[in-house]
Specification:
14 strands; eight-stranded mixed sheet; alpha/beta; 11 helices; 352 residues; 36% helix
Length: 352
């Protein structure tokens, strides 16, 4: 159980100011009065300048080591860094006495995950994994429909998260291997697997097709995983960085009805445009993009629940300040890593 801090604001440092740090972490720290954004580390002069413009009261340092050297003066360290350095950086933060939030992918291996969970418990500090897609509006809508029993007994859950990433570029996602926690299965797959487990419980990998499509790519960029849950539900998860067109985001097939929805939760584009929490329309899905419930041609529109990414950091604050449970239990993230490791093993066996 994490130890409580006596007062707020929670002194916070963020390692990394790429898409993750800039879009998915800093805005929630900046807009939640329980936190204070003290330090950001980035080695890019352009990103450092951008960070200073967006957060003028925050000190920018040039490397993770500089931030970690000052972690004893922080309450929380957020790792918006590549997966293969998460273990080392988190251990250093715990050693300094800080709580830790780690962006997904959590870590490359189950062994790493177990080590960090043990380190957090030994230190008496929070360890939370940023599975923000638990607070997507469409995912929250599925949870509501399942709770209401509208769809009947579920036999198949389909989840698709596909993008068009273009050619391989100079970035860690394209230059590091799956052994280091890179590839589309570790990246977008971490979301899809976590969501499936949250909805339908423990599962085993029934089939996996992990493919490298783009010339020069060193990890998978187009993947499919079939999970068989202990409840009997089968989840079909599709993720891609080479999809010019995408299928439905979700399709849930039940004994009484089905639910389908297209497109992606709109919190990410809002955040990219610096329309942070509190902005008009944040988290609200236009009615034209709502999903459909029904059978055959008898379909009706269902309002999409409001997206709520800020709830993750509200949970982090409650954990640090009042000892509440982690908003994302790291053991949940360990199970995601276990499934990803197994998917890689099965796919490699088929390809051999």
């Amino acid at each position: 159980m994490p130890t409580a801090q006596p007062t707020s604001p929670i002194r916070t440092g963020i390692i990394g100011f790429g898409l993750s740090g800039r879009v998915f972490h800093a805005p929630f720290i900046a807009t939640n009065p329980a936190f204070r954004l003290d330090l950001i580390s980035t080695g890019s002069p352009d990103r450092a300048a951008q960070a200073q413009r967006q957060h003028p009261d925050t000190e920018i340092v040039a490397s993770p080591s500089e931030l970690l050297a000052r972690a004893a003066d922080l309450d929380l360290v957020i790792l918006a860094s590549p997966a293969h350095v998460h273990r080392e950086q988190a251990l250093a933060a715990f050693e300094a006495g800080a709580h830790v939030v780690i962006d997904k992918p959590f870590v490359p291996t189950v062994t790493d995950a177990k080590q960090l969970i043990a380190a957090s418990e030994d230190a008496g500090k929070l360890l939370a994994v940023f599975q923000n897609r638990r607070w997507d509006g469409d995912f929250l809508t599925i949870k509501r429909l399942l709770a209401e029993g509208v769809l009947g007994g579920i036999h198949r859950f389909e989840s698709t998260f596909e993008r068009w990433g273009g050619a391989v570029r100079e970035r860690w996602q394209d230059s590091t291997t799956s052994d280091q926690g890179a590839g589309i299965t570790y990246d977008l797959g971490s979301h899809l697997i976590d969501q499936a487990l949250q909805l339908f419980g423990p599962a085993t990998v029934d089939a996996a097709e992990l493919t490298t499509v783009r010339p020069g790519a060193v990890s998978d960029d187009d993947s499919f995983i079939s999970l068989l849950h202990e409840t009997g539900v089968r989840s079909h998860l599709t993720m891609s960085r080479v999809a010019g067109q995408s299928g439905p985001r979700f399709r849930v097939l039940g004994s009484e009805s089905s639910y389908s929805v297209n497109g992606l939760d709109n919190q990410e584009p809002f955040l990219k445009d610096q329309r942070w929490p509190g902005s008009e329309g944040y988290g609200v899905t236009p009615s034209a993009d709502w999903g459909l419930v029904g059978v055959g041609d008898s379909l009706s529109s269902v309002e999409t629940a409001r997206g709520a990414y800020p709830d993750f950091y509200a949970g982090v604050a409650a954990s640090i300040l009042a000892g509440a449970p982690s908003p994302v239990d790291p053991r949940d993230a360990l199970e995601v890593v276990r499934i990803i490791e197994r998917a890689h093993q099965l796919s490699a066996a088929v390809s051999a």
